Amino acid sequence: MLIRRFFLFALLLPLLAPGVQAITLDWDTATWTNGATSGAPTSDVDLNITASTPGLFQPSLVNFPNIPTPAITGGFDGGLSPGQNTLELAIDLPNGGNGNFVTVTFTFNPATYSGGVDNVSFSIFDIDFANTPGSTYQDRIFNISATAVDGSVLTPTISNLGSSVTNTAGVLTGNASANDLGPGSANGNATISFSGNPLRSITFSYGAGGLFANPTYQHIGVYDITFTPVPEINPAWSALGSCLLAAVLILRHSAKFRK
After folding, report:
1. Average pLDDT of the segment spanning 208-235
2. How many whole angstroms separate alpha carbon 105 and alpha carbon 177?
3. Considering only CA atoms, which of 45, 236, 218 is closest in space to residue 139?
């Protein structure tokens, strides 16, 4: 009876512990140097952006030509009111440059999140398409993946697609024009999520679809990233397990001795 009560207490004790709270990388409070391609928007998340060829990044249209991107701007609403800041990426690919792109990687600091993170979710705003004089482009988001703590590659769940976005086997392309701000701005949204396996980093590439040989200026906004830290095994639980094992062995030995 004593052993049963002890095990019951051990099983119920974790349920009394406080749950791990989700964390948000909020671009309204994050920091970034305009035009930088690497840095830490928060102390716990590193960001690295690479371009396949030099000179792809363009200034934001929010305060053109004063803000080089990548930059935190209020250039996209994503259907939200009031509007929120995003990490804006503006590019202009060279003639025949559909093979050019930029790759964005967020790494969750292993010193802070030694067990990795889970339930990662973020949205990209203004994935769209244009075919008017002076504006011919098709946004394309591809190579969307995450690297798990164990080194395996994870595929995303993609949801909340706006009407201007097509998802084909995990590749997002614009199929119509979407407003940057105001009514219709949610049409260019897509939400990318990873869950069920602790991960260390997430990545995606941004370029152009193959509709135009010389795409013109195009841009997107990466919205806030939410994630849940995966807790380490508490040393107290390891100690408790050792105590349980020792108690069982002692009681069994005592019972055997009494016989």
Report:
1. 89
2. 27
3. 218
